[in-house]
Amino acid sequence: MTDTQTTGTGGAPTPRLCALADEIYDAAAIDAELAAAARSKDARNTCVKILNSAQARGRATIAQAFTAAPFDAKAMTASYSYLTDGLVRSVYTLTTNHLHPNKDAPTALSVIGVGGYGRGEMAPFSDVDLLFLVPSQITPWASTAIETMLYILWDLKLKVGHSSRTVRDCVELATEDFTIQTALLEHRFICGDVDLGQTLGETLRSDLFSGSGRAFIEAKLEERDARHVKQGQRYVVEPNVKEGKGGLRDLQSLYWIAKLIHNVSRAAELVEKGVFRAEEYETFAAAENFLWAARGHLHLLTNRASEQLTFDMQVSVAEAMGYRDRDGRRAVEVFMQDYFLHATAVGDLTRIFLTKLEDMHVKSEPLLERLFRRKPRVRAGYTVTHNRIALEDDAAFLSDPINILRLFEEALRTGMLIHPDAMRTVKANLHLIDDTLRTTPEARRIFLDLLLKHGNPERALRRMNELGVLAAFIPEFEPIVAMMQFNMYHSYTVDEHTIQTIAHLAMIEKSELEEELPVASSILQKGVNRKVLYVALLLHDIGKGRQEDHSILGASIVRKVAPRLGLKQDEVDTVEWLVRYHLLMSDMAQKRDIADPRTVRDFAKAVQTVKRLDLLCVLTVCDIRGVGPDTWNNWKASLIRALYRQTERALETGLEDLNRQNRGAEAKKTLRAALPDWPKKALQRETARHYDPYWQGLHVTAHIAFANLFRDLDENKINIDLHPDEDRDATRACFVMPDHHGIFSRLTGALALVGANVVDARSYTTKDGYVTDAFWIQDSEGNAYEASKLPRLRQMIEKTLRGEVIARDALKSRDKVKKREKAFRVPTSITFDNEGSEIYTIIEVDTRDRPGLLHDLARTLAELNVYIANAVIATYGAQVVDTFYVKDMFGLKYHSEAKRRTLEKRLRQAIVEGVARADN
Question: Residue 893 belongs to what domain range?
Fold first, then answer.
C-alpha cells in the first residue's frame, strides 16, 4: 500500500491502518475468490455477494477499531478510503479480466478518485466520486465495462457519483465549472491504465492549474459565504459538521486554495510555505481531527450520511467519543463546548488564510475611484491595507500591551475591519494581557469605551471573543466561551448569547426598536446608568456551567470583576443585584398572574426603586431577545410591559394602591364607559354579576366580550367568543356556560385536540351560577390563529364540550415527544406557594412539555375537587412551567401538608403516565 493510495490533507497512512490492512480488505484473497466465482452460472450476483461480505467485514473491523480509539480520525478516514479502494479495484479487475475482457483491441481505461474520495478522506457513508478516464471517445467496450462496474458498485449500496471523460474534456469542463475544477484538484489514480492517469495529472498542472487561480479563489470565497448564510453561524446549537460555519468544508476550502496556490499535497506543508505558523497548524490539525471524528461517529450512529448534529445525536456522539458528566455539566455539554471551540478555531484560521489570499488577489480599483475616494485616517502605529487596519510595526505594537485593546478601539472608531495579520499577532501574544494590564486605568477606559462609546459594541466584543482577548482581559469569562446550553430554548452558546444581548441594547439605544419596544426605549431615553447596564449584561450569565445557581455565582463573580473594570462601589452593588436577580422580572411576568395584586406587590418589594426597575426591565428585554431570533414575541412583550407599568405605578404612588377594591371599581367604571349604548339596568346587572377577582383579572376588552356573551346568552348552546389579539400574538377564547365540575379540564382538552398552545387561562364563577373562562391560545408557530381557522377551532371545542369527543382518548395518538427532544433531561419539580397570592394556593409544575400536558394536569386537579381559578403557562423549549392558582372545594388555600403531598403524588403520576404514552 503506497502513500498515494491513502493520503489526504492529513498525510500518510497511520500505523493503526497498516496493522489492520488485511483485516479491512485482503485484496489478493478476495480477487482470487472473485475469479473463481466469475466462471459460475450467475457470476455477477455471486460476485456481488462475495464483495458485500468483504465490505461488511471491513466496515465492522474499522468500526470496532474506531470505537476503541474514538479520536483516531485519521485512521478512520484513511481506512474507509482504503476499503473503498479495494472494492473499486476488485470490481475493475473482475469486470475487465472476467466479465468483459477486451483482448482483441485493448482500450485504455483509468479509474480516478476525485473530491473527498480522491483526497483519501472518507467518513463511513461518504460519496464515492469516480472519474472514468478514456484516451479519446468512449468505445462500446469501455461503455459496457463502465456500466457493469457502476451496477456492481450500486449493488454494494455505495453512493457513487461518476463521470466518463477524456483528458481534454476534463480541462475544458473544469475551466468553466469550479465544482469540477475543485473535484479534479484532488484527483487520485485508483486503478487501470497508469500512463493515462499520469497524463491527466500532467495536463491538469500545465493547462488548468498553472495560472494565478484568482477566479477559483473568488468562487470558493463566494461559495463559502453562501454556505454560511444557508447553514447559519457556527454558534447555532444544532450545527452541520460538514457544511456549517467552522465545519469541515471550511477546512477543505482552505486546503483547496492552498493546493492550487502553493502546490501542496498535505496541509502540514503550509508551515514550510510560510502560510501557517507551527502553532496555527497544530490548531488546524486538532480541529480537523475532532471534526472528522465527530462526523465519523455521527455516520455510524445514524447508519447513513448524516451531517447535522441534532440534539439527540449530540448525546449519542458525546457518549461514543468517551465524554462523561463532570462538574455539574452533562457530557454532551462538554462535548459541544469542545465542538464550538474547534469551530471557532477553524473560523480564525480560514479567515486569516482566505482573507490574506483575498488581499493578494483583490481587483485593482478604477483610477477615478482611487483618486476621489477619501483614504481612511488612522492613528499613528497603524496603516490601511485593502481597507483593513494593519500594524506598521509588530514589535512597536507589542512593546505596549495596551495596544492590543487600542486596536479594537481604532477598528470601531474608523469602522474598518482588522487585517488578518494584525489578528494573528494579537492571538499569538495573549500572554501579554496580565493582571497588571487588567487593572491599568487606560485599559479600563478603553474597554468601557468599547462598550459605551461607539454604538456597535457587539462588533468589537465578538472579534475580541473569537481571538481570545475577551477571556484574557476578563479571565472569569473564559469558562462560558463556546459553552453549549443543552436545551431547545437557547439558540446560541452562552458567550454568543451574551454578545447578542448587548447588540440588542445598542439597537434600542439607537432608537432602532422604538416601535417594537416602547417601554425599554422610553427608559433609555429618560436616562439610566449605561455603564451599569452594559456591564450587567456582559456578566449576567458568567456563572453558568457550574453546580451552583448561576445567578448567585454570577453575583459573587461581579464583586471581583466590576471593581477591576473601574466601577464605583454603588455601581458594583447595582450590577451585583441585577446579575443576582436578572431572571426575576421574566419569571414574575411569565410564571405568575400579574393581575394578582400580590404578584406586583412582591415584585415591587424586591425591586424597591424605580431606578432598579428601569435597569432590570431593559436587561430582561435584552436577555429574552438574545436567546434566539424567535424567542421574543408580543405575548412576552405585553406581560413585561404590564408588569413594568403596574410596578412603576406602585413604587411611585404607594403599594396601598394595589388592592382588589380599587382595581374592581376602576374596571367597572371603564366597562361602563366602553358600553355607552347599554341600558342602565343591563349595565347594573352585568357589573353586579361578577366577584372581585373577575374585575381585577381581565382587561376591559375581555369584560366587553363576556358582557356581550351574557347579553345574547343561549342556555341551549355553548357560548364562545374567539378573537385574534394580534398585539399579543395570541387568540383570546371566551366561554360562558352553566357552571359544573371539571369544565376547565374539558376546555383544555378541547384546545389540545386542535393543537392550540395555551399561554394563559382564567376561570371565574358568577353569582348567578355561570362560569366565565378566558383562554389565550397560540398556534404551533406561536402566533394568533388566522381568522380562517377559527370555525374549525369552534367546531372541535363544541364537540368536546358536548361529549362527542373524549379528549383523553383522542389525545393518545398525539402525545408523542419528538425524537430529537428525548435527549433533554427535564426533571419534574412541583412546588406549593401560599404566600404569592392573597386568596389562592399557587401550584407550580415544572416539567417536560408535550401535547396534552395541561389537560392531564387540569383533569387530575378536577378529579381531586380542586378549583382552578387561573393557569399561567411559560414554555422554554422542551421545558414548560404550568402555574395554577387554586382553592379547595370549600374555597380555602391548601395549608395541609398531607393534602399537598396527595396533590403532588397524583400530579406526578399524571405526568409519568403521559410520558409513557408519549414514548410508546
Answer: 694-919
